[in-house]
Amino acid sequence: LESSAFFTSLFMLILIDLSSLNYTKLDELTLALVRAYGVFIQAMNRFRSAMQLQDFSRKNAEIDGVRGMLFTALADYSNPHLLEETCAAGQLRRLECAWAIEQAIVVTYQVQSEVSAVSDRLYNLQDKICKDALTVINRCESHDELDFLFPEIIRIKNHDLAVLDSWQNHVDWMRSLPSSELKFLSSADFNNPDTHYSPINLAEPPEQLVYESLTKKSHFYSLRDQLLFIFEPELRREYEFYMSEQAGITGYKTLVTSNLQQASDLTVGNLYYYFKVRDESKDELELACEPELQPTKAAPTNFVAESSTNSNLQQKIFKKLQNIIAENLAVDSSTITLSTDFNKDLGGDSLDLVEVVMAIEEEFDIEIPDEAAEKITTIQQAVDYISRKVAV
Predict the structure, then answer these.
(1) Catalytic site residue from 147, 349, 370, 384
(2) What angle in degrees, to the nearest 10, is found between the helix axes of 143-155 and 88-111?
(3) Mind listing the pLDDT tens digit for each residue in 299-321?
């Protein structure tokens, strides 16, 4: 077992997080965690010694004792009342400690060739991690918490759960073997004293890079929901159903269920809150969505006031469009010209283009009916249309 150093790091992070609690609560939690940590370290040391024993009965008895100590440590880390006042990030760190102890318990069963127990506990642990992750995500209430939770939970999903799933598959394969082969495996020595471990990669983890990219295209609630989609796919299906209903009402013909099912979590999360805002401010939107041929003679917007000529206005619109399209379609803004065709040159699918239209509506504070959007195929047409809308 090489989990002691990892466990120690998590333990110290939890103690730092506890400093935000009142002293009475802090004393109680600190004592419980220090006690649990001490028991865990003792259990690991005892386990290493037990694995050196040659007498089979003594070895098994020692491993049974180790497992009992690990269950004692786990009880403190799994106590739902101990850290009820802890923030979401602190909650996740505590749970990661509990998961590490759970894995150590699984190992004690595995070295005793209790394959059924190993399989059962691995299955339950994977299910527990998913449920715990949902609890933590739902407790996230700030950008600061999300900055930590998003890349960490993505790592748990892509790495930790993948490792446990591989472990589970290996154990299930062992369960399918005849007893003669199992006996051979249990007697074989797979320890390699010359094993070399890869050095720790100190480069910025890929999950962090993904998160930094997503934050430029999304917002807090959408990002949090994208985490929920990972562990609760039914929530995404509910969002897709809601959006398909709203799209039918507002005239976005491309947002049918079949298209939404192929969209990324980012797209679904963003579109959901776009329609949610529209739905909650329906009365205001009805006033803003008067027929295009009947414009009101309102005072010029700030955007128009800053423009001395129609040429200057279109130039400003074009620059803003370049930035919007580059951000939403991941293309180089310098390649976007007035003659650029949305479909032929930019390669965006129908959902990508819907997001571009929504971003344009938000940037210029205008409404673009679906019928009008379908007729706009080039950047020049988009500039002309927007300049007419903002100039009324």
Answers:
(1) 349
(2) 20
(3) 344 433 443 456 678 888 888 99
